[in-house]
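Much of our argument rests on the idea that a fold can be written as discrete symbols. Part of our work consisted of pairing the sequence of a single chain with a tokenised description of its backbone. The amino acid sequence and the backbone structure tokens for this protein are reproduced below.
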Amino acid sequence: MQKSLPGLQKKYQTAITSIVNALTPQRLRLYPASLALMMFAVWLWSQLSAPGLIDSAKTIIGFDFSAFYTAGSFLLQGRLAQLYDPLLQLAFERALVAPALTDKFHYFVSPPFTVPLYVPFVLLGYLPGLFLWWGLGLLALAGSLHLLRNEMLKAESVSTLRLFLASFTFYPTLMWFFAAQSSALILLVYTLFFINLRRGRDFYAGLALGLLVYKPQLALGLGLLLLFKFRWRALLGAAVSAGAWVGAGFVFFPQVMIDYIRQSASMLRGSMGDIWVGQSLNEFSLLLLESSWKLGATALSVALVTLAVMALWLAWRRIDWQPGTRRWDFSFAATVALGLLISPHLYVYDVMLLILPVGIIWSYTPRGTRSRPLDHGPLLAWTALLYLVEFLYIYITRPQYMLMGAAIQVAPFVLLGWAWAVYQAGVEKA
């Protein structure tokens, strides 16, 4: 066994070198931009080639926004108590796209206290509301990049606009836009959390993190970081903002909140939809074993998530709390990636949140080494693999699932490898 380790390490280094050598500066500039432009052109054609509010696949334009629009409309119509009835949501969305016909609908499953946020996007009608929603998301993305640039790249000449355009070469960013999801707003929350934590303003960092109470699964990793490092002021801030938001729900919509809590488990199960699109460790387990061995799927999920949480704890045991140092920054970046993996649900548009950790590690070598970004080694190779897998994961996973009712989802392990490479780069070069 010991003799085989050097051989494996040599093969690993050879593979890393081969990947990096294939990533010439010209290819790094041309291929991502070309792929993004092609995908955007196909999406735009799909939106314009069908009548009314549906695209060529008979899916409502801005499909996840349709759920937000439904929620805001129910509140304006005084029907909030009926919001979580799937049949009533279905009837509303069918009327929304009529006379076009489609069976592809997206149900609103977020907590009631979020509903007032969607009301402004309902007032002018569906399409104007969708464009306003896209505009808000684009502003949130640009704001996140601007804040990160000012924090990490003060002496560099790279513009926010360049970073903004570059972010759209990442497939999850495109999918956030196509789906009209809220991931860009979550990215802004992540960025505010990181910057405040880095500047020693723990309470304000916690206030930002607590805003994710409406999607708590995306706050798990960051919350565990605070717990493992005993950052009580940050945890207090998170409790304050989360409590205020939930409390407002009980003040203004008490019965709806109670109904939501009663129905939340069944709604979350139903919201998982096509399981083959999931990329978390939990969804890896379900994809692999749920159809043949449900108990085994649950056991594997618990085991993998437990190991990931233990890895997070062990990693931070080695890291002193020194915000702003390379080791701390890289460990935080790895924590974001690992936190996404331990989420019960991780859809492709939420992988967009990796823009933050990628920006953190890129800031240490913004001009690149040997005309290539990052460190011209494992980080660049793993980032390229992650980029490629995010484009191809559906084509890798869906055929397996359709043929066998099960699949091996490779994306979680590429993300795990990327997190490990990031962490090691911070520890080894600190």
In short: The mean pLDDT is 89. Residues 53-144 form one domain. The two ends are 31 Å apart (CA to CA). The CA atoms of residues 222 and 339 lie 7 Å apart.
